[in-house]
Inverse folding.
């Protein structure tokens, strides 16, 4: 049977989010199946700079070394986000919120140190993550926005570009195919581009679920984003077994039901068909985990609720959805 990366050789690289622990456990398998890795948490702000000016690179370094050893590409995730960042980054040592200038200095220093350190190995970065509101309103009310103002977004890209002018720089978000949010993302990115901000791609996270028929919205989003003449990547693909509105824990489920697996297969089939059709715009498709034995969805949005969102089952065996994804006529 073909591996994922063999099947998509002429289309786009297939990536996966991992941790050092998962690389130790499943490293051989990962190197066989995938072209690229992303650190699920180890390159986030709080992992790399847990305290102002104190950097910890050990785990990220291990992952970079793995990528190098196995000739895998590596995506960088993520530089500027409202989550997984120590609050002290926005505070003076003796309390109180820092100034705009100080905040820009701290942001610039973080980006400079991180992007420069990995520039030989990390080919792209999610520079800006999840800054658009889901509901009403445009920008998410984050500390970055409060302290710096709207131009924090351009600064983020410019700092990254200064540190590595060859890196492919992304705006990344979830619900990116939901029309309302899609249009806000489109306007944001178009505006940045028009200002000459170095931005090269849109990351559609792709946290989808089998309760939705994703293809319709996906195609409209791909069409719209393609107009921006930037790269598009699916950066965090998983296909949850639960509708987002389902808040129950479902203790009765010891494994996925036949109906769930069937729906999941249909959704994976539908979205991959579209990815292939839009291959001229799509420069990567990355899963947010390897196999059903571990996924962040086991604890999100409902704690301790098992989920089975991938193409490989809890034993690492291929699921029916896998065959659908790798077997297609050109
Ligand atoms: C998640 C990780 O998978 C979890 O392990 C962590 O506890 C929280 O963050 N959007 C993103 C990712 O951009 O960084 C998030 O990753 C999932 C949603």
């Amino acid at each position: 049977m073909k591996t994922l990366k063999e099947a998509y050789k002429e289309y786009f690289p297939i990536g996966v989010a991992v941790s050092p622990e998962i690389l130790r456990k499943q490293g051989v398998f990962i190197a066989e199946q995938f072209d690229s890795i992303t650190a699920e948490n180890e390159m986030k702000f709080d992992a790399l700079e847990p305290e102002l000016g104190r950097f910890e690179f050990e785990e990220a370094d291990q992952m970079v070394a793995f990528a190098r050893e196995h000739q895998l590409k590596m995506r960088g995730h993520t530089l500027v986000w409202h989550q997984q960042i120590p609050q002290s980054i926005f505070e003076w040592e003796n309390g109180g919120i820092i100034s705009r200038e100080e905040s820009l200095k701290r942001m610039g220093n973080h980006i400079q140190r991180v992007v420069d350190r990995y520039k030989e190995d990390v080919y792209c970065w999610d520079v800006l993550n999840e800054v658009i509101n889901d509901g009403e309103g445009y920008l998410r009310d984050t500390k970055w926005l409060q302290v710096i103002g709207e131009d924090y977004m351009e600064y983020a890209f410019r700092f990254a570009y200064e540190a590595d002018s060859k890196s492919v720089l992304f705006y990344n978000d979830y619900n990116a195919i939901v029309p309302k949010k899609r249009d806000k993302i489109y306007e944001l990115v178009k505006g940045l581009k028009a200002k000459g901000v170095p931005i090269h791609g849109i990351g559609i996270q792709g946290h989808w679920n089998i309760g939705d028929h994703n293809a319709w919205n996906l195609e409209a989003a791909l069409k719209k984003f393609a107009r921006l003449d930037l790269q598009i990547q699916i950066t965090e693909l998983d296909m949850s077994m639960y509708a987002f509105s389902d808040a129950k824990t479902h203790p009765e489920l010891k494994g996925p039901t036949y109906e769930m697996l069937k729906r999941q297969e249909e959704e994976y089939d539908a979205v991959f068909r579209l990815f292939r059709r839009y291959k001229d715009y799509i420069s990567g498709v990355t899963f947010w985990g390897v196999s059903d034995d571990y996924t962040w969805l086991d604890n999100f949005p409902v704690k301790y609720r098992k989920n089975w969102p991938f193409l490989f089952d809890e034993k690492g065996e291929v699921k029916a959805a896998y065959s659908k994804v790798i077997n297609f006529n050109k």
